[in-house]
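Anyone able to model this chain together with aspartic acid?
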Amino acid sequence: MPFRPVLLILSVALALGPSVATAAPRVVLAIHGGAGTLPRAELGPELEAGMRADLARALKAGHAVIAKGGSALDAATAAVVILEDSPLFNAGRGSVLNAEGVAELDAAIMEGHTRRAGAVAGLTRVRNPVLLARRVMEDSPHVMLIGAGAEAFADSVGIALVEPGYFVTPRRRAELEAAKARERESAGAAWRRSPFHIGTVGAVALDRDGRLAAATSTGGRTNKRWGRVGDVPVIGAGTWADAGCAVSATGWGEYFIRVGVAHAICARVAFKGESVEAAAAAVLADVADLGGDGGVIVLDPRGNATLPYNTHGMARGTIDAEGRVDIRLWED
Ligand code: ASP
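re: yes, here you go
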């Protein structure tokens, strides 16, 4: 009966056909450029086009790494470096400014299958904070280094240092002046209102071996003082990766720390068997219940991605294994 196996294969292929065709694309990299994107009219066409172009470059750089068989860690790093170098996002060059007019930068990186992690906070001279976070992970016995000590470590491992003025852009100076004016008018209460976060960057990546990584980088909040550090470099709050889930967050950092957002999402996936969509929605609802807002990007080893937020908009994008790019700033 030589025809039987052929018929069997044919009928299985026919039965699978429609579901294969409609299956969600296998996302290999998701990125964000911060929750709280300005409304389209306020952002303006030039800035919108610039942000979309830089998000596309970051997605393609990460995809190129994975397409060549590179690691999720390298892909997430490559994407975040591009967004740190762009002056349009709140990370690296173009970061928001603290109360003294200085960019004070935080970043973190984590590898899923090993749960190795590195984080840095309060940097003023490291050109690419995510690269230093990675060196902390790979070349030091520590997980988190801050301030002058972190910069001394950077120097010792040959990481590029720049003058603090490198990070400052006219747009961020104007935002700082506006924030100071709001603070004067509200007698300090402005800090307790939603900060209208703009531009923190992050990436979650999946490589051909099914390994995940997450990376996040930020200048934090405009007009911050007293060495304020947000959720980004707090492993489990703004950044987390394990074997089954990777998360990079953006939003009102104080709330994201209190909820342990990134770890909470992955814990729900691991222990409750929830999808990344369900887990992210539940944890963002928890943030909102406490009074916070923001968004997350989440990826699992099957390439299921979710990019929810509860702010006005969130700059975000995905690229699938075939290199198809999807970039959105609002509900567009
Ligand atoms: N989460 C960051 C922080 O609180 C800010 C942001 O995502 O916009 O430092």
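The CA atoms of residues 255 and 287 lie 6 Å apart.
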